[in-house]
UniProtKB/TrEMBL annotation:
PROSITE patterns: RESPONSE_REGULATORY (PS50110). The modification 4-aspartylphosphate is found at D52. It comes from the Bacteria. This is Twitching motility two-component system response regulator PilH. PANTHER family: PROTEIN PILH, STRESS RESPONSE REGULATOR PROTEIN 1. SMART domains: REC. The keyword Repressor does not apply. The keyword Phosphoprotein applies. One of its GO terms (biological process) is phosphorelay signal transduction system. It comes from Thermomonas hydrothermalis. Keywords: Phosphoprotein. Residues 3-119 form the Response regulatory domain. InterPro entries: Bact_response_regulator, CheY-like_superfamily, Sig_transdc_resp-reg_receiver.
Amino acid sequence: MARILIVDDSPSQLMSIRRIVEKLGHEALTAEDGAAGVEAAKRELPDLILMDVVMPNLNGFQATRSITRDPATKHIPVILVTTKDQDTDRVWGLRQGAKAYITKPFSESELACMIAQYLDGGSPA
């Protein structure tokens, strides 16, 4: 069982993703904005982070950059889970250190595959 941090400012999205993570048999940790997500990543050292982009305080791009550049948390894979679906957003997200980018709405199986891939230490096929 892995520990997965879900960072999203939408309570309904947070619960929806949490249900999928727990259904897969993993422990779900949550944070409601980017700043809280960075703090939770440092405190909890989860196995994987699912990060929204559009959030108050610190957006997902900024939070991802902070997590992936901090020696204490840079080993944690971050998957951006967002409504931002432009190619430029995807490229920018990956340049901030995210391992993958998935757009909302997504299917449960799509998210499950992405989680499995990065928990196994894999890279995109």
